[in-house]
Amino acid sequence: MTSFDTSAWAATLGYCAAAVVVLLAITFVVSKIAGKHSVVDTTWGLLFVGVAVVVFFCSSGHGDPLRRWLLLILPVVWGLRLAYYTGKRSIGKPEDPRYEELLDKQPGGGDLYALRMIYGLQGLLAYVIAAPIMVGGFEYHAVRVLAWIGVAVWLVGLFFESVGDAQMQRFRADPSNKGKLIDSGLWRYTRHPNYFGDACIWWGIFLVAADSLPGVATIFGPIIMTLLLTLGSGARTLEKSMSKRDGWDEYAARTSMFVPLPPRVKKAVDPGVRRTSRAGR
Questions:
Q1: Residue 216 burial class via C-beta count within 10 angstroms: exposed 0-12, middle 13-18, buried 19 and up
Q2: How sure is the predictor about 279, in pLDDT bands with cuts at 50, 70 and 90?
Q3: Please, what is the average pLDDT of the chain?
Q4: Which residues pair with 190 in a beta bridge?
Q5: Alpha carbon of 91 to those of 47, 84, 151, 175: distances in Å?
Q6: What are φ and ψ of residue 9, in 5° steps?
Q7: Is the torsion defined by CA of 128, 132, 137, 139 positive or negative?
Q8: Helix (H, G, I), strand (E, B) or coil at 214
Q9: Confidence grade of residue 3 (pLDDT, cut at 50, 70, 90)
Q10: What is the pLDDT of residues 131-186, one digit of tens each?
Q11: What is the rounded distance in angstroms from the CA atom of residue 168 to the CA atom of residue 178?
């Protein structure tokens, strides 16, 4: 192909939507068996895996082969790792307080309300955020430098997300750390290394798609993901519970909220300067 195949791409959008709906329908059935809606958190990463697989097969003969492979491998590796980590962490745990609070706002809302506000909303968000995959898979131009920069950004993101999660898991596994804040490892430089990594993942995927003109228009995908991670149900929600722990004020004062930065050092006042100042009054 020597141009963007609009008809094949449009048909793929429908197949991707169907994949998202099927995965969420299966998740809803599992949630009824498990007795908690938080199983949808495990499916979140799998939604992007489903979209990436559908796009890869539907774009065969339409998009650049190397870009197609990149837009398959990057989301699948990320999505499977996230699903495994989230699923393993949720085993034996009760319903997520976020979903309890949401459902309490609509007493008697039942399954239809949950389908709309939990499953439907997450499905819609995943579908929109995955736009770089759905568009990039059909770009016919050969992969250029910007795409490889995207791969590098993706690797940085995978490092921060996977290492940050592993460090948190080890911290929580130690009973002596119960009720404490982790401020070591990557958590010394950002209060949310896993969320920062997640954002980098999607900016990296976007750059792979933005290597050609149609993909540039999908910039709303990583923007929405970053806003969710910083202002939505990500960092802001988590910090509500973190702020109740001892030492939070000091930790928040010295540690960057999102982008990793060296810890801020509180400047000490020179006693001699203080005495001189008082003497001059």
A1: middle
A2: very low
A3: 90
A4: 256
A5: 20, 11, 32, 18
A6: -65, -45
A7: positive
A8: helix
A9: confident
A10: 999 999 999 999 999 999 999 999 999 999 999 999 999 999 999 988 889 999 99
A11: 12
Q: What is the pTM of this model?
A: 0.90
Q: Are the CB atoms for 246 and 156 separated by under 8 Å?
A: no
End-to-end CA distance of the chain: 81
Domain residue spans of the chain: 1-141, 144-264
Max intra-chain CA distance, the chain = 82
Contact 197, 165 (CB under 8 A): no
Provide the residue type at 9 as one letter.
Answer: W
- Nearest in space to 99 (alpha carbons), one of 27, 29, 38: 38
* pLDDT tens track for 14-66: 999 999 999 999 999 999 999 999 999 999 999 999 999 999 999 999 999 99
Q: What angle do CA 265, 270, 276 make, to 5 degrees?
A: 150
Q: For position 278, what pLDDT does the model report?
A: 39
Contact criterion met (CB below 8 Å) for 191 and 144 = no
Res. 255 pLDDT band, cuts 50 70 90: very high
CB atoms < 10 A from the CB of 49, how many? 21
* 264/269 Cα distance (integer angstroms): 16
Phi, psi of 119 (to 5 degrees): -75, -50
261-266 contacts, C-beta under 8 A, 24 or more apart: 261/189, 261/190, 262/189, 263/188, 263/189
User: H or E element: which one contains 134?
Assistant: helix 131-136
Q: Is 64 helix (H, G, I), strand (E, B) or coil?
A: coil
